[in-house]
Amino acid sequence: MSESRKKRIVCLGELLIDFVPETNGQPLSDVPAFRKAAGGAPANVAAAVAKLGGSARFIGKTGRDAFGQFLRGTLEDAGVDARLVETDAARTGLAFVSLREDGERDFLFYREPAADMLLEAQEVDAAWLEDAAVYHFGSVSLIAEPCRSATLEAARRVREAGGLVSYDPNLRPMLWPDADRMRREVLAHIGLGDVVKVGEEELTFLAEESDAAAAEQRLLALGARVLVVTLGGEGCRVVTSGGARIRVPGFPVHAVDTTGAGDSFVGAMLHRLVELGVTAESMVSRLGDEATVHDVFRFANKVGALTTTRRGAIPALPTLAEAEAFHPGG
Smaller CB count within 10 Å for the chain: N or C? Predict the structure, then answer.
C-alpha cells in the first residue's frame, strides 16, 4: 500500500473496565453504585477515531473473562478493528472512578498485574502495523515489561515505515513506583513522538520548569516535532520545532465527567490530520500554518468539550454528525 493511501490510525496499550459513579461529588468510599464502561486511554482514542468516521485499529491484551469479552464487543460496536490477544495469565484490569462536582476525577486501579501489561512484542503481528498512517501510544504501557517493549517496538516499526507517531504521556502517578521514575521513563521516549500531547500540569512536571515557553522548548529539544499543550476548557496551544506557537480557544460547556475528554481530543486531532494528509515529514510545516492549526484543533477542542457533557469514556464519545451539530456557547 502506498504511503499516500494509508489512512489507518493504530493505537496500542491498555484496555480496561472503568466503573463510573452515577452521581458526582462523592469520594470513592461513599459512592453507592457504579456503572460499568469500557476505558483505557489508547482504546478511547481508537474508539474516538472510529466514531468520527475514521479507520481505527486497537492492539492490546485482555483476560479470557467476561470483562474482556465486553471490551472487545464495545470496541467493535464503535467501529474499531480490535486486535485483542487473550490470556489466562491475568484478568482484565479495573479502574474505579470518583467524580467531583466539576467533573474531575480520582482513580483506584486494580492491575497487579492486569492482562494488558502482559502483551509481548512477538504477539503484535507485523500486518497489524503495515497499513498505519499513525501509531498512537501512551505511558501507562511503558510501566512494566513485557508491554513496554511491545509498545516501543511497534512505535519504531511504524516510524521506520514512514508513519506518524503520536504520544500522549497521560500521567497516572498512582501506577508508577515513584514520580522520578515516571518522569525519566516518559522523557526517554518523547523523541519517538512526532506529535506529543501534554496537559499544562504534565508539561510543568516533566520539564521541571514553571515557565511554559521554556518547558515547551525542553520537550521539543528531546526530539518531538510538534507539542500540543491542552488547557482544559481554555483550549490548547500548538508549538512546533519550526518555531510556531499558536493558541486555539476552547468551547465553554457544563462538564459532568472529564473521563475520556483528552482521549477524544487526541482521536479528533489524529483523524483530522489524516484527513488533511499531514504526514510525519510534512507535520512541522503544515502545523506552522495558522489556518491549518485552527482547522485541526478547533475540531479537536469541540470533540473534547462535547465528551465532557456525558458520563463515561467510550460511551461519551461523539459521532461526526454529533460533533458537527454541536455549537457550545452558541
Answer: C
